[in-house]
Design brief:
- The structure is a single chain.
- By secondary structure, the protein is an all-alpha fold.
- The chain has three domains: about 1-185, MFS general substrate transporter like domains (Growth Hormone, Chain: A); about 195-250; about 255-460, Growth Hormone, Chain: A.
- The protein has 21 helices and no strands.
- The chain has helices spanning about 5-35, 45-60, 60-70, 70-90, 95-125, 130-135, 140-155, 160-165, 165-180, 195-215, 225-245, 260-265, 270-290, 295-300, 305-310, 310-325, 325-345, 350-375, 385-420, 430-445, 445-450.
- The longest helix is centred in the N-terminal third of the chain and has 35 residues, at about 5-35.
């Protein structure tokens, strides 16, 4: 594999590193930020939610901007906006300022990831796409690995403001590397008119639906208001479906869902992605609240899933060549389901080595499934429609991950009530039903994967 084919995936995956680092560090630093800004810690959910809503609003426009102004240029703009938002967050003197600057961060984040994936898909030849996708997964995994430790260290020994300011040098380096190594000569420029109605409908639908999901169960908004928001979100998304069918060039062309491999991995892979969103939420709670482990001990154990994901680079290309996409997707989905269910069988006295190895293997098969999905899903999309495909895929992924968190929290709450616990109290026994539901949900992805042809993606092997 050419050196450039390794460098470009790492460069365009650097935004995922920044996002994963930012998210995990932000969660660690919430108590310190609340104390510094003199606001209740619960109110800082607004800083997280504002980023999510900004992400939802501006994700649909990423493809149009990339086609209109060039993917490399928009990619650098997005990193610049994310870095500027980070710098301003680090200087925020009130909750209102922090929320405003997180919105700017979200604008950049909404364009960084789908446009980065677009650059990768357009710049790497099909026969080297599997290896490139594996390299694409390395930076975000590293971000997940070091995030909690990094955040805890900064909060302990310095000011919380550095959790944002540290994004600036990373962002500047990513912009420089993109400008030097990403070829802008083969970009597909189009000058289609901007679908303002579609942008409004998608932005309203995604922000209302994701906002309702994010705020569910946090007692910040009345339950009826959340149901109204969810209803408005679903209605706006349905209106967009009808609207897009009447246009030749909608902001997101849903006709790409007619491509079987793309539909199977985006829609069919949604249960798998929902489970992926639930697992990182459930595992730290199990370790700390269920078993009483310290945050450090919990982090050192749960990092096993990221260690396993790094191992994908060693086995993925050979596995694809030997077994093909369909058998690999089916087997990895089944194994992922079984590993999730096995997490619910952990006990406080389970040997730590056994827990680490189990989570590491779970992280490996989980990552292999996701690399296969990301590679096969775009294999039959034309380059002219690739910007629509990456934007729609990112929207589905964001929705799935958010649903995963709310699913995990909901099942935990029901299990706790069923077991007769006091409100707000969790015990180790409450987690087994949650992991069982998550594991069984993963199996639903098989309904789409078994319909794939045995020869799908053969040109990528």
């Amino acid at each position: 594999m050419a050196a450039r084919d390794r460098i470009v995936p790492i460069i365009v995956a650097s935004p995922l590193f920044l996002q994963n680092l930012d998210t995990s560090v932000m969660a660690t630093a919430l108590p310190s930020i609340a104390q510094s800004l003199q606001v209740p810690a619960l109110h800082l959910n607004l800083a997280i939610t504002s980023y999510l809503l900004s992400l939802a609003v501006f994700l649909p426009v990423s493809g149009w901007l990339a086609d209109r102004f060039g993917a490399r240029r928009v990619f650098c703009w997005a990193i610049a906006a994310f870095s500027l938002g980070s710098a301003l967050c680090g200087a925020a003197q009130s909750l209102e300022e922090l929320v405003l600057f997180r919105i700017l961060q979200g604008m950049g984040g909404a364009m960084m990831v789908p446009v980065g994936r677009l650059i990768l898909l357009r710049s790497v030849p099909a026969e080297r796409l599997v290896s490139a996708m594996v390299w694409f997964t390395v930076p975000p995994v590293i971000g997940r690995m070091i995030g909690p430790l990094f955040g805890g260290t900064i909060v302990t020994f310095s000011s919380w403001r550095w959790i944002f300011l540290v994004n600036i040098p990373f962002g500047l380096l990513a912009m420089l590397m993109a400008w030097l190594f990403v070829d802008a000569g083969n970009e597909h420029r189009r000058h289609e008119s901007f679908d303002l109605t579609g942008f409004v409908l998608l932005g309203l639908g995604l922000s209302a639906l994701l906002g309702a999901i994010e705020l569910a169960g946090k007692s910040m908004v009345p339950a009826w208001a959340l149901w109204v928001a969810a209803g408005v979100g679903c209605a706006a998304l349905l209106a967009y479906v009808a609207h897009s069918r009447r246009l030749t060039n909608p902001i997101i062309d849903l006709a790409i869902l007619r491509v079987q491999t793309y539909r199977a991995t985006v829609i069919g892979g949604m249960p798998l992605r929902i489970a992926i969103g639930a697992s990182p939420f459930l595992l730290p709670l199990l370790m700390q609240l269920g078993f009483g482990f310290s945050p450090l001990a919990s982090g050192l154990l749960t990092v096993a899933t990221a260690v396993g994901a790094l191992g994908t680079r060693v086995v993925m290309a050979q596995s694809i060549r030997r077994f093909g996409f369909r058998p690999l997707l089916i087997s990895c989905t089944v194994l992922t389901s079984l590993f999730y269910i096995s997490y619910g069988q952990f006990r406080a006295d389970t040997p730590h080595v056994l827990m680490f190895i189990t989570m590491m293997l779970g992280g490996l098969v989980n990552s292999m499934a996701m690399v296969a999905i990301q590679t096969l899903g775009f294999s039959d999309i034309s380059k002219a429609r690739m910007s629509h495909a990456t934007a729609l895929s990112s929207m589905g992924q964001q929705l799935s991950l958010s649903l995963g968190v709310i699913l995990g929290a909901s099942v935990l709450t029901l299990a706790s009530h069923w077991n007769g616990n006091a409100p707000g109290q969790l015990h180790a026994a409450d987690f087994s039903p949650a992991f069982l539901v998550v594991g069984l949900l993963t199996m639903l992805s098989l309904l789409s994967f078994v319909r794939l042809s045995a020869t799908e993606g053969q040109h990528l092997r």
